[in-house]
């Protein structure tokens, strides 16, 4: 997530520079042909260009709406994870009861730390790569990776989980296909055992168990956004229409500028680049927003949110040495 | 679901080629009449064409929004099925209790395998055909079926169900009208019996039963999308307006190109084809998205999601020989 | 509901023919005045027409979005009725318990058949007429009634209810203002009595009672859509703007066609009819979608859905002579 | 709520007549200056007008969407009040139990009548006036008040409440700041007492109490729409842009009509009035929809809905002398 | 929140005056160059400007929709806080029971006053500043602060909390990272203790505890809107496109006005300012709406809503000296 006021222009222009080069070439070719070879028919009337432009604007607007919705829903899900984590905190602390205060404290810590394990496994799963994601396959995004680091790509899941689980459990979990899902199953098994031993009353057991179900909901919603891309048929026509528009734009401008004067046709190039850049930028912004867990600068900041949850819950447990919250780096990127 | 970066152009152009042929013909006719027979009145002014174009863009934008919503809701429902299936796993495992570990294990397995039976019956029901669906009635879609296989069309429901149910139950279920709904009724009857025999406490019984109600919700939502098409009155005007636009487009272009020069009117044909293709492609993309369970390349991948659920739940049961997840084929199609 | 691929053109054109006649007249008048009486000032510039056209397209797009939402929400509510009906089935069957199997069976049947009575009363209430509905007041809709029958207009509520309730209850219910609401109150009174006699445990009683509350929710949502029309102020401006557009359209076209040649002004008539027809059709489609329970060909198919619920629940009861599902008629209309 | 087919034109035109007078003046001034004083520069090119028109159409479309949503949400909330009122009816009747039938009946009546008191207090609160509301501050709306009456402005809250509460309670409630909220608190206190005296079982008590919480939700949602206007910054720019458009419209038309002929510039006035009227009407319709509880002809009909709830619940209690439902008046207005 | 009819023009124009100055300069430069240096090529055709204008209108419309949604959701969350606060009132009053009336009263007061403490801590947290917020970083917003005061910036959290908590608790809470979250944890610990001492029955305990979970949900949703800005990539392109449009607008107008006459090109300046002002105003309104808790004049009025909750709940407790509700100041601003 960018947490500054606006993106810096000195980041933005280089990030879109390949499209600018392309637009210069694609508008220079017909202009030169028109000017030097006098191919008059290249200057088509404006109206077909306007129609293609309108259709492209519709499609681009639609895409931006949907990718924004994906991002915002992803943030809502993580908001719900925050809320349910805090609820997990108070329900564990006040519903898991033992006459011996130190045993009770140990139980509370165990259940809350295993929750941190779930958060950790989940965020590592979300930051894996998918075939339709852009952060590693697009040169401009790879390049932009110099401005920030993705914590889940820098460290090892086992190492991270070790802080929150004992070795037996860890060895068992690490073999599982979907680690986060199986950690919640572990929590459930533990709650059953506490219920059977009378440390959670029957009524309270039902409530805490229901919270596990909600955590499965949140995990599943994350996986839905992670595993189901913005439909590729829509993404494909968006790309096709923008490229088509970039091809017909200079043809339409040629006819407009040629009305002013022969030399003015060269203005076709800068104007095509400016107008085309508007549409390519819309497209590239949409592309870089559609996968909110891919390790992009526009990602939902799941690492720092997980840290914030850890702080809140350890504060609830009364711990003293709380970790520091993660903050944005010098480029205002917060992961 | 297409899980690649974008659709390949060598798939896309052939998929829309009939519309291209049509556009060539429909624009060549008035152009030829204008050129050879000098029917000047065929070249109508641009403004009525622009108004029809705007109205068509509105309608097409509206349709794409709604079909996207249908697809996305279908995926959300299946996401909820994943979540509830995992919840089913932990609730069965930790709320169905027996002092004898092997009896308990058998009960868990029975209830979880019957859940797989429900998933199987449901996905077979969803992949049946409906009168308004397009995958089998449209030649370009039939043709595209060479790029992937629909698993539910290749195998037999009874065979598949046999893996998860005993023969008596299977014989009973196979006679029912709505098999999936009756499998859940079987689950409910089983839960009652377990409750009556004290293997599920009264409080826990209420919770598991509530989960069955949620599964009925998800099944019903699937059936809603399956059985209630995108309203045919809206689909009909979309088709009518696009065809109407394709007829008036070349007439409007004729007048624009004739202003440049007599021979330039032949440019009407390529330009009409390009602009018309934009609108026909929008329409065809919408059509191929509106039924997310028809066996289309853009379907929600319910077969592989069912498999993923099976893996997760059998992993929870502690089984060793887990089936492999389904992956996309060479054309990036995942069913 | 139309369950075919698309509306047939031989149905569609006659359905909108009055608007076509009107458009011919409204465009012929200024054209004739211009041509014969040389009233040049009738040919106004295009720009004001374009602005009115844009505003009308916005309003028409807005209306179609909202009427689609009304239809889709109506279908969602009926989907929820299907889900809750199935849940009613399993909860009655597995929570209403008696040691005597035949008494139990009779209780189950009574409660489930009374549910069919509720469905019947509800669908009769929904198919009554309201002042703002169009199916009986618009000649083109009345005419279209030859293509299908509305079952609730062909039969008698008392007769239908007799199948599901005993005579005492029926006599009592038939006097009530809101019959469906009072049938659910009957169900509630029955559940209380069963709870007091120990045939539903206290915990289970709370769950089944909660389901009745949900059925009230669904009934109330149906009544909301039935009794609260698409706001008449918005419907009114839609109609006014379309008619206004139909008046200014030929004036704008006159000036455009007169630039081509004097005789070409007669082209104003066909072009005005085509463009005006696009907007009138949008308006008429919107109108025929906005009330999803009025007995229109585009209604939610509540009769066949009620039948489907009856089949599923009687299948659950183990009955043998199940009724046949309702299917679409020859014109693809399913009610 | 207007429950007719459409607004009558003889109501509509007078309702917007002040805007028409304004438009005549604002377009006559530049036209006269242009014609008589030959101020040619007043005739500006069309393109800036078109851009302002497009931006205004966007803003007006946005506003109509949001005000429609406010109205529709208000109706949804009242639909939920209907549903919860019926649920209140069956839950009170079947969960508040006494061995003495007449005591039980009295208890049921007391709790249900106090619910009517809540509905009454709520609708009086909702029909109070706010600083941003339009029904009393706009002359055209004040004028329109001759076509209907707002029942809450014609009667006295104390008188109305007397029908449903005893004098002690009434005297207590009438002193409270938020009467509706405190009536629900009274219900809650009564339920507690009934629970303590064993007339509501512990399990059932929790369920009924939860319904009170839902009624607070509905009340609070009503208050949200009542007390939080459509944001004034958006309302302000809407008004400013429409007035700005009305000023530049005739300037743009001047240049278009002057191309036809000198005398034709006078056509600027009728055309400006027609086009400007479209935008002012959109604005005025939006304004009159944005506050659904202000006593406007487009209000949610909360008086008649409250009456309908009273009828249903007294029918449930088995009363005989039910009040009549409220119906629309001669002008089709239902409050 | 502005609670007047509309923003006053004498506030509005100064608030946007810097943009007006900028627009005068940016349009005067090319006009002067064109007029004095005869740089004809500066007058570009209108069509590229129209395309950029359309794309900018799309983006601006999109932004306004999303910022409106943020504001409205923020108000919905606070509406839910109102509802849950009232529910907290009746549940505490009627579910926390003691045979000794004065002990009971003290307990009720304690739990309800601690709820006020939570509201206080929450609103102080929400009115802190973030890097992307505008109220303190934008000169026009800083200037506008003269028209109202932000209560949370004028007083001290500890002082405010002292009214509602005892000193021990306060000293403990004030050290915590997230004070509001830890106050709810305190409530939870207190409920546990009351449950263990039999002052809340087991069933009722579960219900009140569930309400705490809902309060965590509301707090978390507030934090989501507070901590996750309108995505900076979208905000950035909005700003870039509006500035780009302001640069190309005068170039396009130059060509249009130069067609009328050489001196008329000076009209480029006022017309560019008017049209550019429309787009800059849209942008600035969006900017000032996107953060509904930043201390802006358009904020959700969380201070006065907290006060209203306090009044309602103390009224419920039967207190006599209720505080006065907060009302809008002379400039109609309500915080």
TrEMBL record, chains A, B, C, D, E:
TM helices/strands, residue ranges: 20-37, 43-62, 234-254, 260-280
Topological type in the membrane: Multi-pass membrane protein
Keyword NAD tagged: no
Superkingdom in the source lineage: Bacteria
Keywords of this entry: Cell membrane, Ion transport, Membrane, Transmembrane, Transmembrane helix, Transport
InterPro entries (UniProt xref): YneE/VCCN1/2-like
A matching Pfam family: Bestrophin_2
Major localization listed first in the record, in broad terms: membrane
Annotated compartments: Cell membrane
Protein family (similarity comment): Belongs to the anion channel-forming bestrophin (TC 1.A.46) family.
Protein name: Bestrophin family protein
Organism: Pedobacter ureilyticus
Lineage: Bacteria, Pseudomonadati, Bacteroidota, Sphingobacteriia, Sphingobacteriales
């Amino acid at each position: 997530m960018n947490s500054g006021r606006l993106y810096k222009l000195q980041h933005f222009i280089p990030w879109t520079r390949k499209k600018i080069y392309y637009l210069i070439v694609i508008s220079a070719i017909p202009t030169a042909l028109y000017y030097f070879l006098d191919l008059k028919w290249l200057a088509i009337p404006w109206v077909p260009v306007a129609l293609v432009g309108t259709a492209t604007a519709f499609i681009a607007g639609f895409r931006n709406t949907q990718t924004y919705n994906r991002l915002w829903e992803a943030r809502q899900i993580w908001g719900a994870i925050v809320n349910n984590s805090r609820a997990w905190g108070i329900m564990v602390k006040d519903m898991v009861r033992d006459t011996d205060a130190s045993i009770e404290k140990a139980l509370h810590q165990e259940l809350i730390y295993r929750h941190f394990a779930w958060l950790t496994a989940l965020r590592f799963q979300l930051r894996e790569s998918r075939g339709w994601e852009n952060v590693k396959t697009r040169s401009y995004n790879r390049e932009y990776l110099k401005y920030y680091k993705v914590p889940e790509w820098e460290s090892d899941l086992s190492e991270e989980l070790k802080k929150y689980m004992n070795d037996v459990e860890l060895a068992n979990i690490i073999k599982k296909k979907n680690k986060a899902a199986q950690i919640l199953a572990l929590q459930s098994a533990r709650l059953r055992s506490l219920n059977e031993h009378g440390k959670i009353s029957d009524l309270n057991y039902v409530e805490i168990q229901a919270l596990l179900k909600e955590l499965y909901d949140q995990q599943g919603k994350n996986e839905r956004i992670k595993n189901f891309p913005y439909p590729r048929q829509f993404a494909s026509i968006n790309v096709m229409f923008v490229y088509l528009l970039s091809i017909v734009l200079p043809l339409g401008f040629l006819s407009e500028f040629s009305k002013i004067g022969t030399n003015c046709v060269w203005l076709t190039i800068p104007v095509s680049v400016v107008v085309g850049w508007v549409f390519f930028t819309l497209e590239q912004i949409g592309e870089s927003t559609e996968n909110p867990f891919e390790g992009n600068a526009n990602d939902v900041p799941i690492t720092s949110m997980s840290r914030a949850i850890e702080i809140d819950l350890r504060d609830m447990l009364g711990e003293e040495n709380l970790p520091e919250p993660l903050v944005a780096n010098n480029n205002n990127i917060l992961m």
